[in-house]
Amino acid sequence: MAGSTGDQNNMSLKAYFESDVVGRLDYVEYQKSPSVQMLDVPKEYQRKGIGSKLMKQLQKLYPNIEIDLGMLSDDGAKLIKSMNRTFTPNKMYSKVSEKLKHLKSEKDRIMKDVENDNRYEIDKLNDLHDSIDDLESKLEDMSKGKWIIR
Q1: Which of 1, 48, 86, 133 is buried most deeply by CB count within 10 Å?
Q2: Beta bridge partners of 13
Q3: Rounded CA gap, 17 and 96, in Å?
């Protein structure tokens, strides 16, 4: 462990060739979740799988927890794209999203009826509007799922 501050632990993983450090991955652990701060592999050791191995090792330390990659450089984005990752959808997100889709459809149906002078269900619009707003807020706070490095 490189250091800690409150609930946050600053950590590093290093790759060695003989006695030389040929790769370093700095990350923060916060609330039992890792967030990559920096991945550095010297030019002469790049494209040899060192960065991938460090990322896989980090994922092994946090199985089934998505690693926060933060802002990726162009090289970082290429590295992540090249890695074998699996997406696991958040079932609750899917349920809330389906419910939202249904409510919006119901609202659209009632609005068409109102446009055609059928005001029979117009009193439902306020409740639908409130429900739609609530579900949209919930979705903003939810993750669609998580990516796990394999």
Answers
A1: 48
A2: 25
A3: 49
Number of Cβ within 10 Å of residue 2's Cβ equals: 10
CA triplet 60, 66, 72: central angle to 5 degrees? 105
Ordered per-residue pLDDT tens for the chain, 150 residues = 566 667 899 999 999 999 999 999 999 999 999 999 999 999 999 999 999 999 999 999 999 999 999 889 999 999 999 999 999 999 999 999 999 999 999 999 999 999 999 888 989 999 999 999 999 999 999 989 999 999
Q: How many residues does the chain have?
A: 150
* Assigned CATH topology for domain 3-83: Aminopeptidase (3.40.630)
